[in-house]
Amino acid sequence: MRTLPPITKNLLLINVVVYLATSILQMRGIDLTNFGGLHFFLASDFQIYQLLTYMFLHANFWHLFSNMFGLWMFGVVIENVWGPKKFLFYYISTGMGAGIVQEIVQFANYYFTGMAAYHTVSMSGTVIPMDAYLNMWTTIGASGAIYAILLAFGMSFPNERIFIFPIPIPIKAKWFVVLYVVLELFLAHSSAGDGVAHYAHLGGMLFGYLMIRYWNRHPDSSFRRPQGDSLFERMRRRYEESKRAQMHAENTGSEPDDWTYNQRKRENQEEIDRILDKIRISGYDSLTKEEKKKLFEASRDR
User: Fold this and answer.
1) How far apart are CA 151 and CA 206, in angstroms?
2) Among 57-71, 169-183, 282-296, which range has the highest average pLDDT?
3) Which of 23, 74, 204, 252 is the most exposed place for a label (fewest CB within 10 A)?
4) Which sign, positive or negative, has the C-alpha torsion 220, 222, 225, 231?
5) Do the Cβ atoms of 14 and 56 come closer than 8 Å?
6) With contact defined as beta carbons under 8 Å apart, do 32 and 22 qualify?
């Protein structure tokens, strides 16, 4: 946990704590889902704050584990690249966006199936009021934000190969994202009533895609920080420290004269600056093998 970036670490802790609290209170007859879960906006239990709180609630351990595993696997990388403020804004915004899409889909289902014309619903031979039925349309889970983080990874590192169970071979991140989108579209149409908010997953990815496209076209409009600064600034510092230690070792422990030391330091920093500028303009894939090697050496030693 000490090596995790702050937002990812705190999101993991908050989700776990909320899950434990939900389980304990449920044994005492208190269901936090009734208060914090995202209800259909035409139901009496709907509250606007639920667009935020619903993403910290989970139905069971495996629901929590799968979402937190995705947050740990991809969130660490994206937060290191974007920095904590931008990452948190993205996480919360896409999670809320996923909830909004889910609300729209539920409204379409309510309106176009003709339910709006009825005041009661028959379930298993029992007639219940329509409002009580609509209050059952409750969405929980961080999946929308997690799918958005997966999309961000695919767009930031499209050619990075990853292993994902049960796929037996490494697959490029961009194709993995496409595969997930196709799968979610298929499940949304073929698995209605399975209890999974597939459209919320797609909604999180949609909001994430629009935000990333906007940030890429307006790099100075969001947090006034070019993409990747946080990660590459740390790499630059580690690179300078490792080179300084290497120079000392090459001189068998003797201190270099000031002019030689400063000259080498300027040359190293200018080279790193040039590589980072190239990444910001053309992306990581535009680097040569030698340039990638320099960045790797910079990140190898802390």
Assistant:
1) 9
2) 57-71
3) 252
4) negative
5) yes
6) yes
